[in-house]
Amino acid sequence: SDPALVERAHAAKAALGERLFVLGHHYQRDEVIQFADVTGDSFKLAQEAAARPQAPYVVFCGVHFMAESADILTGPDQRVVLPDLAAGCSMADMATYDQVEECWEVLEDAGIADDVVPITYMNSSADIKAFVGRHGGTVCTSSNARRALEWAFSKGSKVLFLPDQHLGRNTAVLEMGLGLDDCVVYNPHRPDGGLATDELRAATMILWRGHCSVHGRFSKESVDDVRARIPGVNVLVHPECRHEVVREADHIGSTEYIIRMLDEAPAGSAWAVGTELNLVKRLADRHSDKTIVFLDKTVCFCSTMNRIDLPHLVRSLESLARGEVVNQITVDEETAHYARAALDQMLALP
Ligand code: 13P
Ligand code: SF4
Which of 23, 50, 264, 286 is deepest in the core (most CB within 10 A)? Predict the structure, then answer.
């Protein structure tokens, strides 16, 4: 990366001192993540945002839904900045408030809404989290989805899981012992979600038809190929991958889990990793004593995570150092109130 920009980022950070706290998700570029005070998966970053009341400025190097959650969890005098407002998430965009409200009406018409506990993955907009908060549900991340499901099934007999069908299905089937037949997929683009009333009544897990465009591209063939190419390879994937991929893997977990597994792996071991490429490359560089390869050569970066680059970060830091807050993320008070209920429920999961 451009040494002059690196210098400017250091200078602006130094000028801001304790007034600034920089959070960085593991999928961020190397040129950006080097300036993070804390790095983490979505869960750890939510906890860290909540634990830093003293910093008036929080710069979030990640995507929009993460910055919204940070705004909800930080205090009223703290301002959260996303260096590029175009850093969204295609999965989060797959569930809109109106669609979710319509889905709930379908559940009411089927006479099952009272039995359903809604869970939304962190990767959703603040108004979806607020919807879930208003209906007594919880947020989850890839590191606590099982605990969220256990909690939900202690309160109701059915779960509506938004918006990532893969995380919902993988957790229900591979970690909770439910059958694939216990899951149905609600398609927001079809009347009544494309489901008959009987199907809804019989289902235990109602999965939203959403997915991650990055993880959705790994296939069972990717796993078969790498096993043929590298005998003894350990396949390690994120639970946003499709069920047929996750079922074939040796280890499954969040970005934080993936990092821990590779840190602890013995020298000489071989790993094929199914998650975003910035993280896999960084881990391969860090562990030159291990063979670490990307699970599929054709899958690449998360384009929206990559929108946060060094020029955008420098612009954010320098404007804050001048006392100007550019690209602030704010969630309105009413939405924040109910979304906070769902986020607090996640943070309180046993
Ligand atoms: P985690 O870091 O929580 O595993 O999330 C992965 C992800 O896709 C974030 O967008
Ligand atoms: Fe969204 Fe997938 Fe990118 Fe994560 S990796 S921000 S889920 S598109």
Answer: 23
Global pTM?
Answer: 0.96
Return the residue whose CA atom lies nearest to atom 3 of ligand 2: 302
Average pLDDT per consecutive 10 residues, the chain (350 residues; last block may be shorter): 96 97 97 97 90 90 97 93 98 98 98 98 98 98 97 98 98 97 98 97 98 96 97 98 98 96 98 96 97 89 97 98 97 97 94
What stretches of the chain adopt beta strand conformation (E)? 20-25, 38-40, 57-61, 79-81, 116-121, 138-140, 158-162, 183-186, 205-208, 234-237, 251-252, 270-274, 291-294, 328-329
In this prediction the ipTM stands at 0.97
Domain-ending residue, one of 245, 264, 294: 294
- Residue 241 shares a structural domain with residue 153: no
305 lines ligand 2 (CB under 6 A): yes
Q: Which atom of ligand 1 is nearest to the CA of 255?
A: 4
